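Ticket reopened. Same input as before:
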Amino acid sequence: MTKYRISKTRFVDQTKTISFTFDGKTYHGFEGDTLASALLSNGIHLVGRSFKYHRPRGIISCGSEEPNAICQINDNTDLTEPNVRATEIELYDGLRASSQNCWPSLSFDIGGINNFISPFIPAGFYYKTFMWPKGFWKKIYEPLIRMSAGLGKSPTQPDPDIYDHKHEHCDVLVIGGGISGIISAKLAAKNNLKTILIEDKNILGGSTIYQNNKNFIIDNQKSNEWLINEISELEKLDNLTIKTRTSLAAFHGYNYLLAKENISDHLPLDKKRGIIRQRLWKIRADKVIVAAGAIERPLVFHNNDRPGIILANSVKKYLDFYGVSTGLNNIIFTNNDSAYETAVSLFEKGISVKIVDIRKKSSSSIVKNAQELGIDIYWHSTVVNTFGYKKIKSIEIMNLSEDGSNVTGNKNKIHCDCLAISGGWTPMVHMHTQSGGKLDFRDIDQVFVPSEKGENHINVGSCNGDFELEEIVKNTINKVKKFLNINEDGFDKISVLCSKELEKKNIWLLPNTIAEGKTKSFIDFQNDSTAKDIKLALREGFKSIEHVKRYTTTGMATDQGKLSNMHALGIIADTAGVKMGTLGTTTFRPPFTPLTFGSIVGRSVGKFFDVVRKTSIHEWHIQNNAKFENVGQWKRPWYYPINNENFHEAVQRESKAARDSAGILDASTLGKIDIQGSDASEFLNRVYTNAWSKLGIGKCRYGLMLNEDGMVYDDGVTTRLGENHYLMTTTTGGAANVLYKLEDYLQTEWPELDVYLTSVTDHYSTASICGPNSKKILKKLFPNKDFSDEAFPHMSYQDAIIDKIECRIMRISFTGELSYEINIESRYGKSLWESCIEAGEEYKITPYGTEAMHLLRAEKGFIIVGQDTDGTMTPIDLQMDWIVSKKKYDFIGKRSLYRSDTIREDRKQLVGLVTDNPNEILEEGAQIVSELDKKPVEMIGHVTSSYFSPNLNKSIALAVVKGGKKMKGQKLFVPMENKNINVTVSDFIFLDKENKRIHA
Amino acid sequence: MFVINCPYCGERDQSEFSCGGEAHIVRPKQPTELSDDEWAEYLFMRKNIKGVQFERWNHAHGCRKWFNMVRDTSNDKIHAVYKMGEKPPVL
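Engineering reply: fixed in the latest deploy. New output:
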């Protein structure tokens, strides 16, 4: 055993030695240790440097509130993790930890110079300092700030660990496995309620489990012994699930809670791999009992941040739980009774201890106990300074003046190697406020306590402001019984004896003889905010706690102010002369402790990040070297390069082939909605801009759909399959939204219509064959069918059979070429496609991707909704007046087409653009101007689609330009970074305006 | 995240639903006879109350049915859920 491991405890197995490294040096601890307790057992207090002044810092607490002992663990590039609290990480074989924010080493840190120039860098100095000279910002200040920003190092490789999400439902969720949580869980589970108890440590028991003191007795046993029995009782309850190593992250409305379970973080490195690291539980609880406990407060005095200054109850936990003494010559500095338990524990183990108390006296039994043991107590005194650079060596104390506002008498220097401090307790009200609960301020001991107003949760134990053992036990029992409607409890005759604190005193900022401007009384240890910074902020006019917080960065470090928020509030209240309760608190936002990104995303990484939709022909595309484009969730072939062709070359070849002979496109991704019902025609009349009543069975029609505001929403071809049966197609990306919108109108505005909608997008695969030879290919595929214009005209459909499989052939065209689309049940999609390729071989049928499709339709001036439109284009703006029915009384968006805004003549309107240099291709999104010299330059439109047309052998573009309809022939400019491109407004139909090709 | 009692399916998680904004705004039967101002009133103007609000909801990842819901937007308390076409409850 090391010098500081002074006793054996039931919680640390001293037969199991674990080796680990800290800053490259190997140390030993035992199973059950945390990294912090193991370091302390080796006499190591100095574990890091503070963020701003790089002051040496030591372990100050034993839990999630720790601001100082934050380490980088595991130096592999993929597994490394910064800002891990040494007080929370369980020791395992092979753990490699290192200190952060110091260079070249923890012991000698160049950044420590900040400590000596600290008078020049008070709170907010960067807002004032880096203002001038202006030119310095980009080249000097910003790089410097970036270099010193941040604490640890992020991993540079993807996280190899597995994370998981799981949903859970229960009657009662108990948060916190301390004494009040254990009592609550027992009451709930024994009364047939499905109960979950979560606890962030690896064992239950909270701080009572190491409360081994004769002043705290439950049912004639010491409180820790009583609790150990209760825990073993709990484990027998069938209704109860206990989840240790599980911390609550967030408490949302309707009792929806997130909790993170550490599954393998505590295992040796070689046993971690391959199993889940952390699991995020998504819990919906009928009732929630919060038993989150309280956090001990530090005291704020000059140089209160040296290594070796530790919270008093943490000193007790290291001693009685881990068997580690944080010092051999201890002084306790307190304003309350709880620290006396630490003193008694130290004394009973033969370790030197003295007490400094700011109160004049205390008459409780635990204080009497300490006095009887002969422990020196300096009443009505305060620490005014501490000494020792990398570890505390001594302190100076002085007497307090009568009212406590000043110090009097002589300085008394006392040597020590550990200063245990206690400024009272802060209830953990985070959960309560996250769920929407409010707080009340309790003056007597200066705490915020939950104000409960009939929510579906209660707070019990010290998080409810009950600090004395008897209060905790009895109030918890009574409150839980009432909350859960329980009569029988098994705790009827419980008796609790405990020390009771009668004298209370709190001073947020302890007085000193040194001028305030020269003191360093730390409030936020990690961000180096001092009492003086808070006062500076107030002098500079900040009043709101939220503003002071941000200006001084108090409470903004990784610990989120668990130790500092109350002191900041207290000092603001004292300085401003207002009541603390009126200030309110800063907002407690989830998560309570930092979550890993892994636990947030769970399994949704890599190929599970988003749904990928593939057509039934996808495999063929891969085999034929397709490059894919994401369209919504679909993977669509973008182009099919042959022999090292680049993107441009492939698209040009595909586009030319489709017009010269034959091309084939996988159009399966287009949205398809099956519409049936006796009012189907009337329904289409109402949702499309054009008329549908007279569309014959077997005919197809292009339709444009608007929003109620008159803007183009979607488009597509709809086919009348029967008297009361239509098949609507939508854009690939718009399918789900169109169905949603149509259902909305059907269910809410027109419930009288007899219409039924079914999404059939996935049901059918579509091969679209176009080009002058397409008819010949279709004839080969369907030898018995008459494809003459008379028998099978443009914009019509026919049922057909291929290889004994039924299919539908639509003669429709998005390219302007003679074109047929064959729809077949999805499972036959690939075989249909292969048949088409085989039949088309003699005509050199060319598969083309979405890019060539876009190019071909742009040659014809067909719009793409979402590319040439952006939610601000009416059909009139698009020069599509022909599709807007004048006769129909109403359709969605009709009234909006003649609002004063939509009839403006200077709206952006669709035009064609041709570049003066036919080889110059415009950039999509480029701005268009009419006058280059005008300042500021006025943007009158932008390019929406732009291609080099292989069929016209020149560059073509579609654009929207203000008042564009009347600008045909006008010269405009597209200013680019290095040049201005001259363009001329043209017709937006570039090819075959007479529509001859579709009848080729 | 709240729990919504879908009138067709029962209690389900909020993530299954989507909100369609204020309820009981009836699409005018004869839009062409409205002035620009009257049409704009229907098209754009919404109350967006802090407090009890009547809303349209859709069980988008469930039965796809639309229904109405009365919710207090300040604390997400749901006061009532009722089918389309049913009279709103008096609160």
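The two ends of chain A are 95 Å apart (CA to CA). Chain A touches chain B at residues 252-254, 256, 284, 436, 708-709, 740, 743-744, 747-749, 751, 889-890, 894-896, 899-900 (CB under 8 Å). Please confirm and we'll close it.
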